[in-house]
Structures are given as structure tokens and as C-alpha cells.
Amino acid sequence: AEYTCNGSTTGKAMASVEGWNASIYECAPGYEPSSNNASGFNATPTGYFSGVENNFTPLGIICNFWGATGCDYCTYAYSYGMTYNGKSLSRSERENNEGLSVRCVKD
């Protein structure tokens, strides 16, 4: 399976083949999405709810998942995400009042 694009690891390998807005950037999930999902993870661009801004992002632009680790006594947790126009999977800190996707993995 192909997990790289132009020599760099790419989020495209985890992105679903459907639902992404179109992109002109070769390594992005929105560029020729039929070549996405080499890993079988099938991340869909469902958007998310921003508790800070009190709004939803539209479908097709971004997917964000809560990570398995957080921070004791903090108001944030780690999340992982990708956009239709970006080439990588990124990690960020998100406020706990945001609505992100959850991915359940069976051992």
C-alpha cells in the first residue's frame, strides 16, 4: 500500500475515497480521491463543532478525531485531523467543549 506522496507520509492514505472537497494539491485528500485510503482507515470529512466559536464546519472540508490521551486537570485533549487541501495528518490540542469524531478500534 502507498502511504507516501512525493516522498513524504501523507494523510491521504487514511482519507476516505468519498466526500472530500476538490483540491489542486497532489498529496491532499481532495486531489483524485479515488487514490485515497491505502491504509483502510477510511477517515471521512465530517467536520466538527467548535465550542469556542459555537458553530459547525461544513462537510467535505475537514475531519478531526479525538486522540486516546488527554491531560489530567486540563480543559483540552489531543486530536488528530486532516483537511481536503492539506497533505498531512496533524495533531493539535482541542478544548474539551468541541465536538469531534470518535474512532473505535477493536483489539
Tell me what the structure shows.
The protein has 107 residues and is mainly β. 0% of the residues lie in helices and 29% in strands. The chain has no helices and seven strands. The strands form three sheets. Strands 5-6-7 form a three-stranded antiparallel beta sheet, with no helix packed on it. The radius of gyration is 14 Å and the shape is globular.
Give the strand tally: 7
Bulk shape? globular
State Rg.
14 Å
> How would you classify the helix and strand content by structural class?
mainly beta
Q: What is the rounded distance between the termini?
A: 22 Å
The SSE string, one letter per element, is EEEEEEE
The main sheet orders its strands as 5-6-7
Protein topology:
Blueprint: E1 4-5, E2 8-9, E3 49-50, E4 55-56, E5 62-70, E6 76-83, E7 90-95
Antiparallel strand pairs: 1-2, 3-4, 5-6, 6-7
Summarize this entry quickly:
This protein is mainly beta. The chain has no helices and 7 strands.
